[in-house]
Q: What sequence folds into this?
């Protein structure tokens, strides 16, 4: 076996003595200095996205007065109660907003529901999957009893 007499080049060293750079080896003067970020204006550590801040705000407790009594409820519940009151006064936008949120909440709970299917339905699904796997196995192997044309020009009719 032939040995390679070239000296091993370390990753990050320029391939050319001139420092010009080449494929996957940028010029030395344009490389990031040690400790320098490639995205200095990027997201800072510990900064939070809108979703997490919104969860915190809606989860805070506030004191409301309902029926002459003071209650502590979350901001979310207080806002929904306020929407409901406005809707009862005849505010169409409040009614629309409240019903829209209720409908979205209901559709989410239906989508994540874990309703078990009856045994009859499970049997139907299993048979359908069985047929599908047998069908795909046949198409991968190809149909049986089919003569392939060998290009000889002999047609069998």
A:
């Amino acid at each position: 076996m032939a040995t390679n007499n070239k000296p091993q080049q370390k990753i990050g060293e320029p391939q050319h003595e001139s420092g010009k750079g080449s494929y996957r080896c940028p010029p030395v003067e344009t490389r990031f200095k040690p400790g320098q970020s490639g995205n200095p204006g990027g997201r800072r550590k510990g900064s939070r996205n809108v979703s997490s801040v919104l969860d915190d705000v809606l989860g805070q407790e506030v004191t409301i007065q309902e029926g002459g009594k003071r209650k502590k409820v979350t901001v979310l519940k207080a806002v929904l109660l306020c929407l409901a009151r406005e809707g009862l006064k005849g505010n169409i936008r409040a009614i629309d907003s409240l019903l829209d949120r209720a409908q979205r909440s209901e559709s989410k709970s239906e989508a994540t529901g874990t309703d078990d299917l009856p045994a009859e339905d499970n049997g139907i699904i299993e048979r359908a999957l069985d047929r599908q796997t047998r069908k795909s196995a046949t198409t991968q192997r190809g149909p049986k009893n089919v003569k392939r044309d060998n290009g000889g020009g002999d047609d069998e009719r």
Summary: The radius of gyration is 35 Å.
